[in-house]
Write a structure and sequence with these properties.
single chain, alpha+beta, 144 residues, 60s Ribosomal Protein L30, Chain: A
């Protein structure tokens, strides 16, 4: 239980630092700009070989959707960039990373963000996020 709490706190810190340039705590108060990260997954967002979102991830995505649904950001489009760890064949990891990005998009669409505002990209293991390959199991939603 302690480990989960630490991960949640670390995840909140990462989300806050990544989104500090986007909006006030009231979410959506400031416009998003091209290149701003609306949502970045905490390290190891997805389990090995999985594209299933956790409850914590859904809470973060609720904030990201609220930012994108705010009037000041209603015209913004984003790309959900999925990543995978180095384990497994490259072609499989590209597919897995795309499925992860699709999972994020699907959830955000459920929260009211228009599907045509979110594109997805599977990057495979092309970007090393942290010291461990497992840290690549993430999705970043970036303003286009």
């Amino acid at each position: 239980m302690k480990k989960q709490s630490l991960l949640l706190v670390a995840g909140l810190a990462l989300l806050t630092s990544a989104c500090a340039n986007l909006c006030d705590p009231s979410c959506g108060a400031k416009p998003c700009n091209k290149g701003d990260v609306v949502y970045t997954a905490t390290p190891a967002l997805f389990a090995f070989n999985s594209a299933k979102l956790s409850a914590d991830d859904e809470a973060y995505l609720n904030e990201a959707a609220a930012r994108l649904n705010a009037d000041v950001n209603a015209d913004k489009t984003v790309t959900a960039n999925g990543y995978a760890s180095m384990e497994g064949p490259a072609s499989y990891n590209v597919d897995l990373s795309k499925r992860r990005a699709e999972a994020v998009k699907g959830y955000m669409v459920e929260k009211g963000v228009a599907a045509d505002r979110i594109s997805v990209k599977g990057n495979g293991a092309t970007d090393k996020f942290g010291p461990a390959y497992k840290d690549n199991r993430r999705v970043e939603v970036v303003v286009d």
